[in-house]
Amino acid sequence: MKKLFALFLLFAANISFSFAMPPPADTLPVRGFCIAAPRSAGLPAFLKFIATELAPRHINTLVLRVDFNYQFKSHPELRDPGALTEAEVKQLVQTCRAHQIQLIPQINLLGHQSWAGTINNLLKVYPDFDETPWVKMPAKYEWPNADGLYCKSYCPLHPGVHKIVFELVDEICDVFESTAFHAGMDEVFYIGEEKCPRCGGRDKAELFAGEVWTLRNHLAGKQRVLWIWGDRLLDGKITGLGAWEASMNNTARAVDLVPKDIMICDWHYERPDKTPVYFAMKGLSVITCPWRMPANAKLQLKDMNDFRATATKDMKPRYQGMMQTVWSDADSFLAEFYGTGKPQKDMEHTSANCFRAVFEK
């Protein structure tokens, strides 16, 4: 009996160790992971991934790109086919809570209202919100193109757009029980277009900042924090970063106009540029976001730790950490991560390898 009792104590100690082991002393405030929300069929595998891969790496923040992959009650007309149910979202909430992971939903706002030749749900159902209704979707999408079409945007000054947007944001934040919301807002190529009857000719930096303030104020009224990608706040010409990881359409000055209590997700995928310093010096909290280049991601992680170690007491809290980004669907990423999918041409530069390089298990 004593032997059995001793074995029980050893087993209990091991269980406690595996679930209660604190993160490393030098851990970053945000150790994040961003991916598209799983579909219903892939939910069990994704829940297991949270428990067996994210939690042991001390991931404490999970951003799920939901968009219209939820069965909205406020706007059922905007649901994707086979979208997640409320009960399925609650499984995500409960799993993350069990592992002390902050769960943050994302809906792409302002930009990314289309992709390639497809208009996404918001503009498909509410075409009046389109910033560029005269730009027609091509039968075969190519870049570059005469219209400068990358992704459509909604018009931030349309009088009806925010009623719909706020209802979506409130519902998704409520069901995810979240204290933060990610609004996307990256790669906004269409804003303040001359032909737009409402915002044509207006200052594009002021328009962008105005939309950030509008979203921030709505969220703040419910004690929630706004997260956005940071590329539109960087000057693509001055920095040499170009039109994708920074702005070439005059929105960069918005960095001095946006509220200071938002979170900037600063993504750089091809080079480990040190732009977190710029955002922190502007008074903004910032996290660095790699994708698929493990060597670059390691340098970005070192930079973030160095920034925190050498910063003044005022600057240090603004360097918030790292977030791995994944730009495939959840099923494809899990197949890549576990080696069960089709081999890629480049087996080194993958989001799975990048994730492992930044966050060791």
Automatic annotation (TrEMBL):
Its EC number is 3.2.1.52. Residues 1-20 form the signal peptide. It catalyses: Hydrolysis of terminal non-reducing N-acetyl-D-hexosamine residues in N-acetyl-beta-D-hexosaminides. SUPFAM superfamilies: (Trans)glycosidases. Gene3D superfamilies: Glycosidases (3.20.20.80). The keyword NAD does not apply. The lineage of its organism: Bacteria, Pseudomonadati, Bacteroidota, Chitinophagia, Chitinophagales. This is beta-N-acetylhexosaminidase. The keyword rRNA-binding does not apply. One of its GO terms (biological process) is carbohydrate metabolic process. GO terms for cellular component: membrane. GO terms for molecular function: beta-N-acetylhexosaminidase activity. The active site is at E187. Pfam families: Glyco_hydro_20. Residues 79-291 form the Glycoside hydrolase family 20 catalytic domain. Belongs to the glycosyl hydrolase 20 family. Keywords: Hydrolase, Signal. It comes from Chitinophaga polysaccharea. It is an enzyme of class 3 (hydrolase).
